Amino acid sequence: MRISQLYKKHAFMLKPMVSEIKNRIKKGDTVVDMGCGTGIYLNLLHKQVGKKGKIIAIDKSTDMVAYCRMKFRKQNITIRKLPAEKISMIKEPVDVVFASLVLQFTRINKAISSISKILKPKGLLIFAVPLYRTGITIGIDKASNEFKKELERNIKVELEKRDIGKKAYLDYPNSRNKAFKEALRKGKFRVLRWSILPLGKNNLKFLMDYYKIPWRSEKILEIPFKKRYSILAAALKRTFEMHPKFIVKRHYLIAAVRKK
Fewer beta carbons within 10 angstroms: which end of the chain, N or C? Predict the structure, then answer.
């Protein structure tokens, strides 16, 4: 299956990001949609900037770019193949860089530095990155802590069954909040909004669909995908059987910052 088809199936708009677009982007603005994917925000961004504004949508995937070029043919939407770290190759100053669920895949300091280079003075960066899932990558209360411990036990059991001498690293996104704050401080950005919000409720079926995409689970178990998925599926199923009423919640960092 092509990556654009996978994203079309799983991509969704975050309500706080929709609010940020409506509240901060003005008619006539030039906006970069960084990591545009299948373009789920492009129609809203286009409506917000109006006929006198401009949208430059970039993505490093040839497939995503081809999909968006086919779908969005408005005169003031330009779609380019370009990775986030090389956004400074856009040679015109822009008012806003919008980045939903993409900066977590970049070398953060380089990406922030490149964004700063193309933003006008007092230009905006609006972004969202996923952080943790309660009960999966972090336990922040009694229920999620118990779920996480049970999941770790069940993953260990599945690894031992298969005679795999590896550990499960479940906490990899939890330092992103701090990393982004430091990168933005170095880049001389002023924070306008910094919110960590639970924006979805996950059950067993949702998580299994999520982990069917190979790179989604590669940080949890660095072994071949088919084995990794079978281990996670068995461990999650047993954990949900032990905690049938638990709801896994995904938390996101929603931020808007201004270039000083």
Answer: N
The amino acid occupying position 248 is: V
State whether residue 15 is helix, strand or coil. Answer: helix
Task: Compute φ and ψ for 199, nearest 5 degrees.
Answer: -125, 20
Tally the C-alpha atoms within 13 A of residue 246's C-alpha that lie toward its C-beta: 25
Q: Whose structure tokens read 């059987």?
A: 241
Alpha carbon distance 115, 83 (integer Å): 12
pLDDT in tens, 211-258: 887 778 887 888 899 999 999 999 999 999 999 999 999 999 999 999
User: Would you list the DSSP string of 46-111?
Assistant: HHHH-TT-EEEEEES-HHHHHHHHHH---TTEEEEE--GGGGGG--S-EEEEEEES-GGGS-HHHH
Per the structure block, which two tokens stand in for 197?
A: 């919000």
Q: If you average pLDDT over residues 180-193, what whole number do you get?
A: 95
Q: What is the pTM of this model?
A: 0.89
Report d(CA 164, CA 197) in Å as an integer.
36
Between CA 241 and CA 243 the distance in angstroms is 6
